[in-house]
Amino acid sequence: MRPLRLILVFLLLLALAPGTWVRSAFPPADLAAAVQVTPLPLDVRHAASIDIVRGWRLTSQNDHFGGYSALLALPGGTLLAASDRGRSLRLHVSDQGPVAAGMGFMSGTSDTDKHLVDIESMTRDPATGRIWVGYEGANAIDRLDGDMAGATRVRPTAMQRWSENSGAEAMVRLADGRFIVLAEGSRRASDTAFPGVLFASDPIGGGAGQTFRFAAPDNYRPVDMVQIPDGRVLVLVRRFHLGLPPRFTTRLMVADPADIRAGGLWKGTVIASFAAPLPSDNYEGIAVRPRADGRLDLWMISDDNRASFQQTLLLQMRWDPRATHVQQQ
């Protein structure tokens, strides 16, 4: 994600007036400001077979807030978001909407080098409550206890040659205990597929992993993924469109882990596209909560990159995985 952020910063500087180039002291950190939640107007409520149920814009002056690139659905109607600065946000969601239930450090402190705490992916074992966290800059994975303590870190051998700016972007623990990790980028700009590793068990155990490549639609990159009850995996892919201001489009794919082969190309199918007039931004996190009727509640959160022309959006959607109306890649 770092090259994208540099482009965004450059575009923002171009838009600034010359008078802003004046040094000023940084204000003290604000760790007390609340999160404001504003419902989004939804003129369009469908993306192919996916229903858009509700959406919100989240804002806050709190220094913990923003930059969310990973999302988990926890028990009790809670969502956990993690940011590229090692911060976390808990949201309790009810019929009235989301309410912030806590913000803080998930990895490191305010003095820690951002390169070491750049969280881009999370996954969870529902049986133990353990959470695994993927770091982009360090190409590392942490395992946390259910109370978010006791971090154990590993830098898997199969991930060490990944670009330090785009590693461990998407990660999922499968129900059978295997793990899939995808990179967002590659060392060669000409590559059209993205490095992936399939671990036979918890990567903290030090297994070598089976390498493969993931095929995304042209100019799209994988940014998150989550397993659904039938065993398949939803993969969130995102495209950056250069402009003033820049814009983003998102697609949601479904892929079967059974199709992964060592050294092979893992392919999926696009089931929905998200672009204007749907609420659009830099969606980087996705979570799933099964419903009693067999449908799934899907949640997406966007990474605002702490840029003035981006927003933190949260969408609640609903999808029947048994639906046959799919949009081909």
Description:
With 329 residues, this protein is mainly beta. It has one domain (2-12, 34-319): Neuraminidase (6 Propeller). Helices cover 5% and strands 43% of the residues. The protein contains 2 helices and 23 strands. The strands form 5 sheets. Strands 1, 2, 3, 21, 22 and 23 form a 6-stranded antiparallel sheet that branches. The longest helix is centred in the first third of the chain and has 14 residues, at 2-15. It starts with a helix and ends in a 10-residue tail after the last strand.
The sequence of SSEs as H and E is: HEEEEEEEHEEEEEEEEEEEEEEEE
Helix residue percentage: under 10%
Radius of gyration of CA atoms, rounded to a whole number: 19 Å
N-end to C-end Cα span: 24 Å
Number of helices: 2
Report mean pLDDT, rounded to a whole number: 88
Biggest beta-sheet profile:
6 strands, antiparallel
Shape: globular
CATH architecture: 6 Propeller
CATH C-level category: Mainly Beta
Strand content: 35-45%
What is the total number of structural domains? 1
- Low-confidence segments, given as residue ranges, are 12-24, 325-329
Count of DSSP E strands? 23
Structural class: mainly beta
CATH fold topology: Neuraminidase
